Amino acid sequence: MKILVINCGSSSLKYQLINMETEDVMAKGLVERIGIEGSRIKHETIGKEKKTIETPMQDHKRALELVMESLTNEEYGTIKSLDEIDAVGHRVVHGGEDFAQSVVIDEKVLKGIEDNVEIAPLHNPPNIMGIKACQRLLPNVKQVAVFDTAFHQTMPEESYIYALPYEYYEKYKIRRFGFHGTSHRYITNRAAEMLGKDVNEVNLITCHLGNGSSICAVKNGKSIDTSMGFTPLEGLAMGTRCGDLDPAILPFIMDKENLSTEEINTLINKKSGVLGISGVSSDFRDIEEARDQGNKRAKLALDIFEKRVRGYVGSYMTELDHVDAIVFTAGVGENSIEMRESICAGLKSIGIKLDPERNNVRGEDKLISSDDSSIKVFVIPTNEELMIARDTKELI
């Protein structure tokens, strides 16, 4: 069985073709600048030379047409015909309360995704465009939606209800949803394997640390709390997002700077976080380099990020009967040796210790804690595409 995994952004599209008999990636690629001048597709068939094609792409339908052409190209493709694609799995960011698990897409499901556009205006519209484009290009192939929010639908009310008048939850579904659920679910399953435990018996704190970051408390294999909220803005200080903030700051700044709602939304989503603090970059590698060169604001940005990670880890430990492991994943979590060391150094008071030699690793499944650590610490590279493909295979 061959499954095509699609992840549509507003002007980009990531894809993988996976052979589910072996779970090997056959081909993968990235389409950039859809609807913008300079659009291109970067395609790689495993075992062949990478191919970059620059060509105008006015919309996601044209982008997906080029993906299909690349997959079937005689020179650099991987399949002879689109008939070899058995199903398509789509990453959908927001399923609201409507979807607690992955589903086969039909008209009712598509309407449900559209109904959640209001609470995910940046994410769900491109996801919908990708689904509709695939329906036109592959009319006889089943499509599956895998939701970032679904894993967190097991949170209890005390974890997701805000301290606002309850009527706003009833009228508008203003509540904490959480995100990165597909990543946290993959990590939960993989950590259970590495611990040699049934996934329904494992307690974890999973740290998805990247340009967008979130932490999840997992009890008996299920999410019971997570740092992101109604939107992906809440929680940690991220690449460009402010994270937790006194809400009274927003009208104060709007009044002082004469900002509109749209302008303040741009400020807290795209100009804040470690970029806003450091003034250097939203890329943690750039900030670490600036810190090492003596930039005090760069050091401050990293210190704030690490402090908030430790704060959430400590908080979630109080929600769990015991913790089997803390897991680092995503771009920063998987690759920043120094970041993991700094975060865990502040957890020594509760007996968490890293082994420096074991921690000297990037992008591998590995135990990095010392033998006398009170809690095991792992690095596990996330694989959302494989999780989407597995769900798709199971559903069809």
TrEMBL record:
Keywords: ATP-binding, Cytoplasm, Kinase, Magnesium, Metal-binding, Nucleotide-binding, Transferase
One BP term from GO: acetyl-CoA biosynthetic process
Cofactor: Mg(2+); Mn(2+)
Cofactor: binding comment: Mg(2+). Can also accept Mn(2+).
Annotated residues for binding of ATP: 14, 208-212, 283-285, 331-335
Enzyme class of the recorded protein, top EC level: transferase
Entry's EC annotation: 2.7.2.1
Name listed for the protein in its UniProt record: Acetate kinase
Lineage: Bacteria, Bacillati, Bacillota, Tissierellia, Tissierellales
